Amino acid sequence: MNNYRDIIIRPIITEKSMGLMERDNKVTFEVAKGTNKTEVKQAVEAIFGVKVEKVNILNTKPKAKRVGKYTGTTKAIRKAVVKIAEGQDINLFGE
Question: What ranges do the domains of the chain cover?
Fold first, then answer.
């Protein structure tokens, strides 16, 4: 990957990810397909200026969705759950 911003696509903000953020100091991101744990760790450390302890990556499969008579699927994404060192945090909301 050329740029760290090409690796980290967006944060994933759900009830479960917010609970992980508060309880275990873990942040969830959508990352580009084909990236590995080392690239994600380097990108998060460079963009947010924090120390990353651990990275877990998972691929989510597309789910079938339906609106009326039309059927389709959600997109398949690659998620990275990043554990940040104790005492550090990432401000996703600009507060």
Answer: 4-84
Q: Nearest-5° angle of CA 78, CA 20, CA 26? A: 65
Reported confidence tier of residue 1, pLDDT bands at 50, 70, 90: low
Burial 53-91 (b: 16+ CB within 10 A, else e): eebeeeeeeeeeeeeeeeeeeeeebbebbbbbeeeeebe
Question: What value does the mean pLDDT take over residues 64-83?
Answer: 96
Give the residue carrying structure tokens 């760790």: 41
Yes or no: domain 4-84 corresponds to CATH 3.30.70.330: yes
Instruction: Determine the longest span between alpha carbons in the chain, in angstroms.
Output: 51
